[in-house]
Specification:
The chain has about 260 residues and is of the alpha+beta class. The protein is built from 8 helices and 6 strands, in the order H-E-E-E-H-E-H-H-H-H-H-E-E-H.
């Protein structure tokens, strides 16, 4: 083979080698692009999964009943934050009798009037087996005082640790305000407890705030249930017409009619 042929073959070989190198570079570039596209797709999928998980968490939290997150709650209260009072006192029910739900706020002047007019009638109906009265303390009126929370917490403590004084404590906590809507100090709340017979060692725990979170959650739940103010009274789930309770004896008669 002549020297010119050797030179020609060498040049051809160089061109072939260059082509092969270019092919390898193209394939390497294609692999990188494919890998990058895959990483982008995976990243998008992971991002979407994180967003979906966050949305689900928010929705679940929003739909969760407020009381589900409360660790400390009165054992005599129902799951939906009521203190039922029947013939056997707080925590009991009168089977077959009308159920009366009373939403009350201790800083509500109209709640004080409600208790003054109807408290004794409700006690009589519950004691006589004619109704189960669900007392539902809430704390809507907290803009200027935390008395609503402190009062409801104290009622919960009495229900838990001195249940025989429950209804008396409830009524007297309103009566101690005079005309109503008067925030009581911790000392005044304690004195109300002592005056109705709550033992000193129970009264001493009022300021621990054991059931404060429960009161706040119960208030939020009441709002979700459509309760916009106090007193709100329901008889077997139907809201009492406004003003009925202001007439002495009218609420008791309405409850008896429902039976």
């Amino acid at each position: 083979m002549s020297s010119s042929q050797n030179a020609k073959l060498t040049k051809q070989q160089r061109r072939d080698a260059a082509r092969e190198q270019a092919r390898k570079l193209r394939e390497a570039q294609q692999r990188r692009e494919k890998r990058n596209r895959l990483l982008i797709i995976i990243g998008v999928i992971v991002f979407i999964a994180i967003v979906v998980a966050a949305i689900v968490s928010i929705v679940v939290a929003a739909n969760r009943a407020p009381l589900e997150g409360v660790d400390e709650r009165p054992s005599v209260a129902t799951e939906d934050a009521a203190f039922p009072v029947g013939a056997d006192g707080v925590g009991s029910v009168n089977d077959g009798a009308p159920v009366v739900d009373v939403y009350l706020d201790y800083l509500c002047i109209y709640c004080a009037q409600f208790e003054s007019i109807n408290g004794a009638d409700l006690d009589e109906l519950a004691d006589g087996g004619e109704a189960t009265v669900n007392y539902r303390p809430v704390a809507f009126l907290t803009a200027n005082s935390d008395f609503s929370v402190r009062g409801a917490n104290a009622l919960a403590v009495v229900a838990e640790d001195s249940p025989e004084h429950f209804t008396d404590f409830n009524m007297e906590l309103f009566a101690a305000q005079g005309e109503g809507a008067t925030p009581l100090s911790d000392e005044q709340i304690a004195q109300v407890g002592l005056d109705v017979g709550v033992p000193q060692d129970v009264v001493d725990t009022f300021t621990d705030g054991r059931f404060n979170d429960w009161v706040v959650a119960a208030t939020e739940q009441a709002g979700r249930d459509g309760v916009g103010g106090t007193p709100t009274v329901l008889i077997d789930g139907e809201e009492l017409e406004p003003g009925v309770w202001q007439n002495p004896g009218a609420l008791a008669q309405t409850i008896r009619d429902a039976a």
